[in-house]
Amino acid sequence: MPLPITDTRDAFRPVCREIVDLLRTLVTDDWERPANAGGWRVRDVVAHLLDTALRRLSFHRDRSGPPPGTRPTPTDRELVTFINDLNATWIRAAERLSTRVLTDVYARASTDLADFVETLDLHASALFAVSWAGETQSVQWLDIGREFTEVWHHGSQIRSAVGAGPFSDPRWLQAVLQIALHALPHAYRDVPGREGVSVSIRITGRASGVWTLHHRGGTWDIDEGPRPGAATIATMSDEVAWRLLFNALPLSEAQSAVQLEGDADLARPLLHARSVIV
Fold first, then answer.
1. 190: how many CB neighbours lie within 10 A of its CB?
2. Contact criterion met (CB below 8 Å) for 110 and 43
3. Residue 134 to residue 187: CA distance in whole angstroms
4. Which of 3, 55, 231, 278 yields a CA-CA distance of 20 to 30 A from 216?
5. Could you report the average pLDDT of every consecutive run of 10 residues in the chain (278 residues)?
6. Pairing mode, strands 259-262 and 209-216
7. Both 14 and 134 in a single domain?
8. Domain interval for residue 97
9. Are 129 and 239 part of one and the same domain?
10. Judging by beta carbons within 10 Å of its beta carbon (0-12, 13-18, 19+), is residue 80 exposed, middle or buried?
């Protein structure tokens, strides 16, 4: 069956609350720990979470336009450069803020974000297309889900850095993976395939599941559930899966952590698939 609509609206509030509750327990050294996020420390990841919450509220809720000089339809490379610049300038500015201020402001901003997303229509047109899924226009539930994956995976980076363990509810990770797997058809877009050939993705752990990427009608698509006779079967833990898809797992580690059966060549795009803009 096709991937179902994944409604993450009610998950923002409890996930953000767990992030804030953890931040309030951190000591000074914890904020300086590396967070496996492109050289960022824990405090930088928290600053980024604050930035993305404020941006979503400003651009989407309040309909404030992007900075002057931004092209309405940037190329992929221009979009990456634009986002990287936004992130870098904010992280530098956030050095002026104490960790208490970062925590208190994020507590308010994340509450406002949860209030806002809970009002959104899942079936409306999204304000932002989900480019890593290869879309130029998205339905709002996928854009909301993309925002949720941002909050969850950065929160998980913080938790991992300070040894806090996983979030309390594995259903949140299941939703993250369900959203993130929309990247796979786009990752396979240039891979030739015969009608009916398929790749099975089996994820183990608390957020376990099986999905099947298949070639039909000249394109790749992904369904929920197994499919008999898959040419390739890729098995990985839920921890490996989210780190792989969110660019937090080096290729060498992915190659050893993902168990492959069948046609290994057909698994290569999976190991390079990303559910973030890189």
1. 8
2. no
3. 9
4. 278
5. 90 98 98 89 97 96 75 68 86 96 98 98 95 95 97 97 97 97 96 92 97 94 92 97 94 95 95 92
6. unpaired
7. yes
8. 9-168
9. no
10. middle
